[in-house]
Amino acid sequence: MSVENAVLGFLLGGPLSGYDLKKLIGASESLPWSGNNNQVYTALVQLHRDGLVSKETQERDLGPIRKVYTITEEGKQALKTWVMSEVELSEHRMPILSHLISADLLSDAELDELLGAYAEQLQMKILTLEEMQRREAGPSFGSSRQRFIWQVINQCPLEMAHAEAVWLEEVRSHLKRPRGNAQQ
Amino acid sequence: MSVENAVLGFLLGGPLSGYDLKKLIGASESLPWSGNNNQVYTALVQLHRDGLVSKETQERDLGPIRKVYTITEEGKQALKTWVMSEVELSEHRMPILSHLISADLLSDAELDELLGAYAEQLQMKILTLEEMQRREAGPSFGSSRQRFIWQVINQCPLEMAHAEAVWLEEVRSHLKRPRGNAQQ
DNA sequence: CGACTCATGTAATATGTTACATGATTAA
DNA sequence: TTAATCATGTAACATATTACATGAGTCG
Predict the structure, then answer these.
(1) What is the pLDDT of residue A65?
(2) Which residue has the higher pLDDT, B184 or A77?
(3) FRET pair for B41, CA 20 to 30 Å: which of A85, A181, B142, B165?
(4) Which residues of chain B lie closer than 8 angstroms to A89, CB-CB?
């Protein structure tokens, strides 16, 4: 799973500049890439070298030059092969769990404080995600099926955050119960 | 969130060798580190240099030498400060979403095949996680609260996988419906 | 005897982030 | 006029994975 495939995927919707791609990739909560310059611009150089995208340099009177990339037939072929190849399983990187390893160092009150503060952070994240989804549920081009897919892609991080919130509340309420009976 | 803090956390349960730590960290589904040599052994060198762990070299007649590490008071102090510091939010790296970006390249049948194969993979993962949890729900040392915490830590990846499976089934059943009505 | 686990460590590679570098346009 | 956005790219740093290197003991 490299950023090249995501770049090619975005180019299916039409030609885009490196700057466009970098913003699209960076803005997406669903994709694991930050969309930093090094990532996107070097990916485009590689894709062009491999003939998977074509490049058109636009010299304009207003603003700096733009390099606009278009996916080639070879690019579509390569992309389709990758899309249908085996999908890697998800990985969930949850720093809260690393903290909990050392919970023994904390009093009941401190542990509750830690989890409470985290629950608040998580709620704020959920609100942000809900707001983002309300505003723009992905590009409005492409087939109705593809538009549905974009909704689904954008919805996914929210569902994960919800699942985490449910888990967290269970843990907190369990820890609030008197004491000793730590079995589920 | 660096592997050093996880190492210190494990050492709260008692002295361990680099090899022990590497296995513990690598075996844990909940922690984002692979537990490779470079990671763990260099982390221990650093922690020792900083005085957060003490080292005891055991020369034994059977097998190679072992270096056993113990967390120091300074180590506990530093660890507690980190534990109570702001927790980073979770990140969910889901390669399936990267594939879905390019779903436009696929026919209905191909998309269904892709999602079906992934659903199977995910189910197998869930079975493995359930089996792992049945066998060993974390170390059996420490307070009852800490044992509960270990259960919770181990349960978390399973809950995330369940949430993903629910999401996936919704998507699949929606895509199976006749066609055209892509709105939720 | 060959593969696996125990036990340590280093080197090479891959990947990712932050910062640097430049320069025009636009909005407050 | 100052900050933000547009637009490109490189350099330095940080982090992570795979592979290399060594060597003893155990199990089939």
Answers:
(1) 83
(2) A77
(3) B142
(4) 95, 121-122, 125
